[in-house]
């Protein structure tokens, strides 16, 4: 259960990087933050979607089978990750 909470939080951080990466297409940085933007793009575009999909799938199955309780997870992180997953489907596909 502790690992699932950890991976939910890691997926949340990657999802924030995804939102920043999508925003970077619309904002002109004029060469500033180029080194930082490389890592944000990698975490946001490459890592975020598969990690978010896998973690939410595992969490949903564990909640369905009642292996964990809803209170054991951080519910706001789970809900925000689910909303961002829908946004990722929209932007990536």
TrEMBL record:
TM segment ranges: 7-27, 39-64, 71-91
Recorded superkingdom: Bacteria
Keywords: Membrane, Transmembrane, Transmembrane helix
Name of the featured protein: Uncharacterized protein
């Amino acid at each position: 259960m502790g690992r699932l909470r950890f991976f939910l939080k890691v997926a949340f951080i990657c999802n924030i990087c995804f939102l920043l990466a999508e925003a970077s297409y619309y904002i002109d940085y004029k060469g500033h933050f180029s080194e930082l933007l490389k890592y944000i793009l990698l975490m946001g575009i490459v890592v975020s979607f598969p990690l978010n999909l896998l973690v939410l799938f595992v969490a949903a199955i564990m909640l369905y089978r009642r292996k964990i309780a809803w209170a054991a997870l951080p519910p706001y992180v789970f809900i925000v990750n689910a909303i961002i997953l829908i946004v990722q489907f929209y932007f990536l596909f």
